[in-house]
Amino acid sequence: MSGLTTTRARAWALTRSDGTVLGFTDHDRDLSFDGISFRAGTGMSAGAIVQGTGLSVDNTEASGALSDAALSERDILAGRYDNAALTIWEVDWQDPAWRRVLFRGSLGEITRAGGAFRAELRGLTEPLSKTGGRVFGAACPAVLGDAQCGVDLDQPVFRAEVALLAVDEGGAVLEVPPLGDFAADWFVDGNVVFLTGAAEGATVPVRREEALGDKRRLHLWQAPGFAPDVGDSVRLQAGCDKRFATCRFKFANTENFRGFPHVPDDDWLQVTPRADGDNTGGPRGR
Fold first, then answer.
1. Closest to 77 measured CA to CA, from 209, 213, 228, 190
2. Using CA atoms, how far apart are residues 193 and 203, in angstroms rounded to an integer?
3. Is the predicted pLDDT of residue 286 greater than 60, yes or no?
4. Of 126, 188, 225, 228, which sees the most CB atoms within 10 A?
5. Which CATH number fits domain 156-256: 1.10.3720, 2.60.120, 2.40.30, 1.10.287?
6. Distance of CA 186 to the CA centre of its chain
7. For residue 226, what pLDDT is reported?
């Protein structure tokens, strides 16, 4: 352990949601431990880590160069690094068995500029700062297709794979075949998953639909990170507006509806007694 001050380096292990593990180090040679190869020369570095006692959130940031060999802009825009798990070690590069964990957490907001990236790192206690618990309201809080919802989105009635007929606004507006088997607005609040082309892997929610004769136009909430081209394949997934009627008539899934459709709304709660006429306590008009 002698000489650690001049032989120490930092190593990062980044685990994406798809299970891919990437290792980086600020040393000038590759390091290896815990079955992970930490690559040098990636240009990645981290700022000072702010740590505190109790449940305060540890935080820092990392920055580096974007490259296909390390963190590529394409993968970042496709969301593959959203909430990726991160561990940072301080390690003796002469003997990696001597190391200590400096930080555990996840990636937060990632910004890109000039071929480089900067990422916010969030500590393990960061989720404790968020409001938890169940909200009781008329709308269903479940995510369409998750374990609470139970709808199988792989059924043909809830999805379609088509080729793009036209692309506008960088991919924020798409034109697809008429999809006569699907009712109007069937995919509103659903998703478009790009299967081929420059935007492959990206998933973008649908804001609204338009019927255009022999075509259907989809307006997305935002363009994918890379503009798709005419002819690219996409998967359209049905959407849900969280209402009881939609759950009943579109998905036949009322037994799994998680909302409370008969909860009084804000207008009902603000109703005041009538100040004129006969107020018998009975239904209005009697």
1. 228
2. 4
3. no
4. 228
5. 2.40.30
6. 22
7. 84
- Under the banding of pLDDT at 50, 70 and 90, the label for residue 121 is confident
Cβ atoms of residues 198 and 229 within 8 Å: yes
Pairing of the two strands 36-39 and 21-25 = parallel
Q: Residue 67: is its pLDDT beyond 60?
A: no
Its sign, for the CA torsion 114, 226, 111, 64, is negative
Q: Which amino acid is it at 20?
A: T
- The Cα–Cα gap between 262 and 240 comes to 19
**pLDDT tens-digit profile of 8-62?**
888 888 888 888 888 888 888 889 999 999 888 665 555 544 444 444 444 555 5
pLDDT at 150: 92
Please, where in the chain does CATH 2.40.30 lie?
156-256
3-state secondary structure the chain: CCCHHHHEEEEEEEECCCCCEEEEECCCCCEEECCEEEECCCCCEECCCECCCCCCCCEEEEEEECCCCCCCHHHHHCCCCCCCEEEEEEEECCCCCCEEEEEEEEEEEEEEECCEEEEEEEECCHHHHCCCCCCCCCCCCCCCCCCCCCCCCCCHHHEEEEECCEEEHHHCEEEECCCCCCCCCCCCCCEEEECCCCCCCCEEEEEEEEEECCEEEEEECCCCCCCCCCCCEEEEECCCCCCHHHHHHCCCCHHHCCCCCCCCCHHHHCCCCCCCCCCCCCCCCC
